[in-house]
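Colleagues,

For the teaching module next term, I've prepared a clean inverse folding example: a structure given as tokens, and then the sequence designed for it. I'd like students to try predicting residues themselves before seeing the answer, so please don't circulate the second half yet.
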């Protein structure tokens, strides 16, 4: 296959592939995106020829004998149906139970990833192979090459990385299960990245994989401070982890300074291998401790504004996923980053990496992702949002039960600028025409590959009857109302989620807020009213006017509630590195936590 299009090495980081080489490679595949996609499809189908899943749909058709690439693409799309996670589940279950026959891939699958489960409410098993680690390393290097064109970093510098592995465990059939990031941190590719790329993570492997996020965070911060002058940038997978790390810093900076002064390690770090690894690196440094203490005393008075460049004076930028459900943390991240640029990181999922940010200068609110056409075979289901009537036309199946009408899936080369799509993946790891559930919009093209704007998760919707509001709609409404909040001095929205309460008629939306600071009840009343009045969805507005949806309620939860939610997910196997607060939930455990922690309730008076 596409030898011409594959990176020469994939596993070996070779210094002759300098940054310009990887960019040139990507420019070539992007220029030829349509052909590369067809070749990628051929390679996947040839590699996994005869597996049980494909046999069911392709029968005895010999892929090698279909010489025309266009014909292969249309035969594949006409014979293999779109699939969802429910179609994959019987296969991943058999793999987990130890079935080693070729079910979805010819090579036995030895690792299963648990998706974070924080967006759809439930964790899912997704196959993870060597290809998954290879593409992770590849996108890492590609994105780094684009970043260093704009924000060059020093060779041999360090990275303050808030990364966390969760536990890996064995399934009944002996397959290793864990989150995708955990598998990656345990892979050779991650070791290659650690050893051979330009910069190094401050924390040793023992800290990343401690299994206790509080202890890891403390050590990441301690080592980050210890190497503060060498840190070239600050990063995490999702922005949430950086924000939560600095919120913790506000509480524990004195203890950190004490440890730096004495060369000691807080007794709260009680995992022997972590203690040994950290104490093996640090030494008493009273001078550094005094310097940090002085800066922190000042910063505390200034509400920690600009803490990152103040404590890490050589950091060039902050790098993390800041789009989608991470966007609400941007205000806080900007506050901590001060003048430092925020660079929004790439777009991917446990199922496959999708796109790279080729314009690191673009503000996170506007960032797009150029699809990498060698990673998977991508199709796009056009989505048309219903505006004013609710009769689905032409009998189109609308499996996501939202208010989108779907068109027929199109290959990558046929997407149109300005159109929204759901992404469909065919991967090297055994997913065939798999609906990812993400809604994206084509913003423009990079050469001939589309640049996507992430819009939202398709299934996360607030709905009572004919109204349909996505996580993005909710985000906009919350953002508007929280501006009222931030005008009130020193008040800050820490986090939020929502629930469509239909237990009583009429049903209504409940939005949960955790806030920092003392806020006047009148202000919160106004925020509640503002949210109710700001949903622009026609179904919502009409239903509110006709009172078939009741007044929106704002529930204020006590401080620490969202941390309890994080801990609930972590106890159930999620990793902090992939954690995302579900923006709408009907998960009973979550609702129980939220309702038990509610301290104030407000009832909207919008719509009379
Ligand atoms: P998981 O596989 O559980 O880690 O979650 C993957 C999901 O996270 C994707 O399907 C997206 O919904 C979301 N996601 C990943 N990368 C981004 C990004 N750059 N911007 C917005 N959302 C993202």
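(Answer key — instructors only)
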């Amino acid at each position: 296959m596409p030898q011409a299009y594959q990176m020469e090495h994939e596993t070996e980081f070779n210094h002759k592939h300098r940054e310009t080489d990887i960019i040139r490679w990507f420019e070539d595949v992007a220029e030829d995106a349509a052909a590369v996609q067809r070749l990628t499809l051929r390679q996947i189908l040839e590699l996994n020829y005869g597996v049980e899943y494909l046999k069911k749909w392709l029968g005895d058709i010999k892929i090698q004998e279909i010489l025309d690439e266009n014909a292969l693409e249309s035969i594949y799309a006409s014979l293999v149906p779109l699939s969802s996670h429910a179609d994959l589940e019987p296969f991943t279950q058999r793999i987990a139970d130890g079935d080693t026959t070729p079910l979805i891939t010819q090579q036995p699958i030895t690792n299963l990833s648990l998706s974070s489960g924080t967006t759809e409410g439930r964790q899912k098993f997704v196959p993870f192979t060597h290809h998954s680690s290879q593409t992770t390393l590849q996108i890492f290097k590609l994105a780094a090459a684009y970043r260093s064109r704009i924000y060059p970093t020093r060779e041999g510098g360090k990275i303050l990385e808030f990364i966390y592995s969760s536990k890996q465990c064995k399934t009944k059939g002996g397959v290793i299960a864990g989150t995708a990031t955990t598998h990656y941190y345990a892979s050779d590719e991650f070791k290659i990245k650690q050893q051979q790329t330009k910069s190094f993570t401050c924390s040793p492997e023992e800290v990343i994989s401690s299994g206790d996020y509080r202890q890891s965070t403390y050590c990441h911060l301690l080592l980050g401070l210890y190497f503060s002058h060498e840190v070239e940038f600050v990063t995490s997978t999702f922005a949430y982890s950086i924000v939560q790390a600095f919120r913790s810093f506000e509480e524990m900076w004195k203890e950190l300074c004490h440890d730096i002064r004495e060369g000691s390690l807080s007794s709260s770090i009680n995992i022997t291998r972590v203690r040994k690894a950290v104490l093996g690196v640090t030494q008493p440094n009273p001078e550094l401790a005094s310097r940090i203490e002085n800066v922190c005393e000042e910063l505390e008075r200034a509400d920690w504004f600009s803490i990152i460049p103040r404590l890490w004076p050589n950091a060039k930028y902050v790098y993390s996923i800041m789009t989608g459900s991470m966007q609400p943390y941007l205000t806080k991240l900007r506050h901590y980053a001060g003048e430092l640029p925020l660079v929004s990181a790439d777009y991917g999922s446990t199922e496959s990496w999708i796109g790279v940010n080729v314009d690191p200068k673009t503000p996170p609110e506007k960032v797009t992702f150029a699809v990498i056409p060698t990673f998977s075979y991508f199709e796009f289901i056009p989505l048309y949002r219903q505006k004013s009537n609710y009769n689905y036309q032409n009998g189109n199946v609308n499996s996501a039960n939202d208010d989108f009408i779907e068109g027929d899936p199109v290959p990558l080369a046929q997407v149109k600028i300005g159109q929204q799509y759901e992404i469909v993946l065919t991967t090297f790891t055994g997913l065939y025409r798999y609906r990812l559930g993400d809604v994206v919009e084509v913003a423009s093209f990079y050469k001939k590959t589309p640049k996507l704007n992430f819009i939202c998760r398709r299934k996360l919707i607030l709905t009572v009857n004919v109204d349909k509001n996505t996580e993005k709609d909710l985000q906009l409404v919350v953002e508007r109302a929280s501006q009222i909040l931030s005008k009130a001095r020193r008040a800050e929205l820490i986090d939020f989620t929502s629930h469509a309460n239909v237990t009583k008629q009429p049903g209504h939306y409940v939005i949960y807020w955790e806030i920092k600071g003392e806020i006047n009840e009148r202000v919160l009343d106004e925020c509640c009213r503002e949210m109710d009045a700001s949903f622009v969805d026609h179904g919502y507005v009409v239903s509110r006017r006709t009172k078939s949806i009741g007044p929106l309620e704002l529930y204020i939860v006590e401080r620490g509630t969202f941390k309890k939610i994080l801990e609930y997910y972590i106890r159930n196997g999620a990793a902090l590195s992939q954690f995302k607060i579900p923006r709408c939930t009907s998960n009973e455990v979550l609702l129980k936590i939220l309702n038990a922690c509610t301290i104030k309730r407000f009832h909207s008076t919008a719509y009379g």
